[in-house]
Amino acid sequence: MSWKRVCSVSDVASNSLKQFDVDGVRVLIANLGEEFKAYPPLCPHMEESLEESGICEDGLMTCSKHLWQWDMRTGEMRGEAEKPLLLYEVKQEGDDVLVNIEKELEYEYDEETEDDDDSFWD
Ligand code: FES
Q1: If you count Cβ atoms within 10 Å of the first and of the last residue's Cβ in the chain, which end, N or C, has fewer?
Q2: Cα(first)–Cα(last) distance of the chain, in Å?
Q3: Residue 29, CB half-sphere, CA atoms under 13 Å: how many?
Q4: For the chain, which residues make up each domain, given as ranges?
Q5: Ligand 1 atom 1: residue of nearest CA
Q6: What pLDDT was estimated at residue 69?
Q7: CA distance 37 to 110
């Protein structure tokens, strides 16, 4: 178990997302107002940066690329989503937001999609 300080409470505005680098591991922090959550930085669909494409509203995150949605507290799928969001454990100590990084969480991406893209250009 390895708790790392990621940022200060004031670094991430309420209902927004911000990406940080923690010893080479990119972590996306969400401020839900009453608590913080931490996810891998990329959309589980097609590796979009959720800092850029993610929209947070009422505890729901929507990737604006293809409208996959998740419950931000649990990572559960909503709407069009076909994969859940992965979460890191988070705790708050005073003004600091800490994340438990045992190992980097990553999604498995469907390689067929890339093949399809390639064949489009052949
Ligand atoms: S890349 Fe995020 S929904 Fe498709």
Answers
A1: C
A2: 48
A3: 29
A4: 3-121
A5: 46
A6: 98
A7: 26
% the chain with pLDDT above 90 = 87
Q: Say how far apart CA 18 and CA 15 lie, in whole Å.
A: 10
Q: What is the mean pLDDT of residues 20-40?
A: 96
CB under 8 A, 24+ apart: contacts of 19-25: 19/49, 19/51, 22/99, 22/101, 23/101, 25/101, 25/104
What is the domain class of 3-121 according to CATH? mainly beta
What is the pTM for the complete model shown?
0.89
For the CA of 66, the nearest atom of ligand 1: 3
Nearest-atom index, ligand 1, CA of 50: 2
Q: How confident is the model at residue 12 (pLDDT cuts 50, 70, 90)?
A: very high
> What residue ranges line ligand 1, CB within 6 angstroms?
43, 45-46, 48, 53, 63, 65-66, 68
Q: CB–CB of 104/40 below 8 Å?
A: yes
What mean pLDDT do residues 63-79 have? Answer: 97
